[in-house]
Structure formats: C-alpha cells, structure tokens
Amino acid sequence: MKAAENFQGKHVLVLGLAKSGYAAARLLSKLGAVVTVNDGKPLEENPAAQELIGQGMNVVCGEHPLSLLDSQVDLIVKNPGIPYSNTLLIEADKKNIPIQTEIELAYQISEADIIAITGSNGKTTTTTLITEMLHHSGRTPLVAGNIGIVACEVAEQATDDDVIVMELSSFQLMGTDTFRPKISVLLNIFDAHLDYHGTKEDYIAAKARIQSKQQASDYLVYNASDDVVTQIAQSSEATKIGFSTVDLVEDGLDVVEGYIRYKKTAIIAVSDIMLPGKHNIENILAAAGAAILAGASLTQIQHVLRTFGGVEHRLQFVKKHDERLFYNDSKATNILATSKALEAFDKPVILLAGGLDRGNSFDSLIPSLSGVKSVVTYGETKEKIAQTARSINIQSVQVVNQLDEAVRIAYNESEEGDVILLSPACASWDQFKTFEERGQAFIQAINNL
C-alpha cells in the first residue's frame, strides 16, 4: 500500500457500516487511525458493529448523535447511501471536516492503476467486459466498487502489476477529493437519483468527478453522442477517446458498415457479437476503448465479444426452452432500462414487468412496446403497467400477483421463436430483498416449467 502513513494517528469517524463502512473501519484501524464507528442500526441487531468493538474500536449505534463531533474528528468516511442532508453531515460540513467515501481511501492507498467506470446505465456490463478483455489478455484485473469487492479491500491487496476495474455510482464519486484514475469511462447521463442529489446539475457534477483530477497522461473514454457527457469531456484535461454508434469518431471508436472500429481499424463485425441489444454496442465500444488503452489485445477482445452472453440479471440469456428464449433483466429497475432491453430484440417479446410502486406512471415506456405481443404484470405496479399496455392495444395483457405465476402465464402465451423477457421497470422491494433475488426467482420459475 502507498501513502499508508497518511492516516497514522488521524481521528476518523466512519459513518454507516454495511460492507463499505465495515471494510473502511478495519483498514483505517490497521493504518493506525483512531477510528470511531457510527451506525443507525441498534447494537444488538448489528453483528458487524459488535465485531468492530471486539477489535477495540469505539462504536456508537442506534442514532447519529451530534456529540460525535464534539471531540476531534479529522475525517469522516461515510457510507455512500447516507445522504448529505443527514444532520450530522451538515454540522460536519459547517466545521470544515472533510467528508469522503471509501473510494477516496482506496485511491490513496492503491499501488495499482485504476480504470473507473460510471454512467446512468451500462456500468456493470461495461465493467465486466473490460475485466474479461484484460483477463484474457494476460493482465490481472481486480473488480471493485459497485460490483465485486469493496474498493478499499481490493486496493489494500493490489500490487503495481494489477489493474483495478472499478464501477462507481454518483453516490460514491460525490465523496471523492483527489481521486484520479488512469482511465475513466463516462457512458451516459440521464435523470436519476434526484431524490438523493436534489437537482440534475448536482447529479451531473457528481458524475463529472470521475475525471476532474485527471491529467494529460490519463485517459477519458467518453460517449461522444451524449451532449452532457461531451460537455464534461470538453473541460477535461485527460487525453480523450470518444465513442459513438451514430457518428464517425476518427480518433476513437465507432460503427461503420456493420463493423466496430478503433481509430479507423475494424475490430469485429457487429453480427459476430453475442451480447444482444443496440444499447450494448455503446457499452462494447467503451469497454474495448478502455481495454485497448490498458493493454488488451485485439484478438482477445474479439474472443470476449464472440462469447460473452451478458452480466447476470442484466439482459442475461438464461436458456432456450421449447424454442422459446428466456432473458433475465431483473436489474432493470427503471423505465429507461426496460426500454433499452425491449429495443434489443427484433423477435416477438412477451414482457414480464412489475414491482415496487414509486408513484410514477409508465407512459414513457409506450414507445418501446411496439414489438411486444404480450405483457404479464405482477406486484404493486401490476395494474398501472397493465393499463399502459392496454392503452396501446397490446395483443394480450395478463395481471397476476407473483412472479412465478407470471412465468407460467408467459410460457402459455408464447409460441416458438418468442422472447420471454423479465424486465420489471421497477425496484424489487415489494416482494424481494434485491433485484438479484428476483432474478434468481425468475430463473427458478423457468426451470420449474
């Protein structure tokens, strides 16, 4: 680890546990910091907090008392999910106490180069593709951040022979200060997480932090067809590599006459790519650009693109059963993600959708429903989505309570050659703890047919 001595003797408040807070507390203690941990969950229900007490740390549970700021606090490392509207954070800001996420901690100690990926959609697919391309090219990629292991845990073990491939959310990036990846990837920016950030401008500013400290010796791989992303890129000091599926990009990546190109050199025919979906071509361009810059070979990039079938729960091909194709897109927790999934197919689609009701309508899904022959809805939003489907005269609209019922109905409605797609357009929390649990339930229901 580099710069480990920077934390010796510092008084650090770790706000919020979960995986990232627990890992940060342990690492900071190992680096010689005086660590206080504060978590909202009561101690008797909090095994992670109990374990940290056993390791000699001061732990305060059940609330976030302002008295924690009465003694010396040099730094706060907060869980990304805790909003800056938290009263303790507001008071800390008034006292000019630095507030960071463990992503900043990971950067400061990492001996390995970092490839950082962010965007409103496509982060996980792009991160996984980069990792696969580097792995097959003989590099040692370590996945961290929003997927994989907590970033500071990975950075603690990484050497200068490794490369950390880090998926980052706006929540994580907002808590960075000196963070400077060797390669940053900025995929797209849509309206998202405004309940956390307050305004779209603040959301954009958080995303833009991925490249804000980069210099000319670093690289920014960016979507040259996204106006917001392009504006960010124009102000970046990094060496810029653009990508686009609609425009020519002479010094970057584009698609010409059915071929993906890098600096005018054809890499692979789009028809040879296994991963479905027009939107995934953007992810592929971004991943190929970052992987090339990090030393991946074109031969191995081609191999990955011919064999990679998708990230689990993100437009994941599950199986072919009775000549029906089943796809698991449980990670589609909003309308935009479901729209992208529907646009990926030129076969008839039976859509399974529904979940937590956030109070929004589903009218913005209508333009993407043109290729849908049947809709099966379930969960809290079942009636809302069904009403939207009926409003445009979808051939068949069925309403059920549970996902396993929806799978059986969808199969009975289907014909050979149909795509049966779970793409909920909603969060999972009405019936499942996570979108992963929902996706596994979908796969199990398919296997039970």
UniProtKB/TrEMBL annotation:
Domain Mur ligase central: 117-291
Binding site for ATP: G119, S120, N121, G122, K123, T124, T125
Catalytic reaction(s) noted: UDP-N-acetyl-alpha-D-muramoyl-L-alanine + D-glutamate + ATP = UDP-N-acetyl-alpha-D-muramoyl-L-alanyl-D-glutamate + ADP + phosphate + H(+)
Compartments (UniProt record): Cytoplasm
Pfam family, one: MurD-like_N
EC number: 6.3.2.9
Pathway the protein contributes to: Cell wall biogenesis; peptidoglycan biosynthesis
Keywords tagged on the record: ATP-binding, Cell cycle, Cell division, Cell shape, Cell wall biogenesis/degradation, Cytoplasm, Ligase, Nucleotide-binding, Peptidoglycan synthesis
Residue ranges of the TM segments: none
Top EC category: ligase
Residues in Mur ligase C-terminal domain copies: 313-426
A GO MF label: UDP-N-acetylmuramoylalanine-D-glutamate ligase activity
Record-stated family: Belongs to the MurCDEF family.
Record-linked HAMAP family: MurD (MF_00639)
General function of this protein: Cell wall formation. Catalyzes the addition of glutamate to the nucleotide precursor UDP-N-acetylmuramoyl-L-alanine (UMA).
Protein name: UDP-N-acetylmuramoylalanine--D-glutamate ligase
Gene: murD
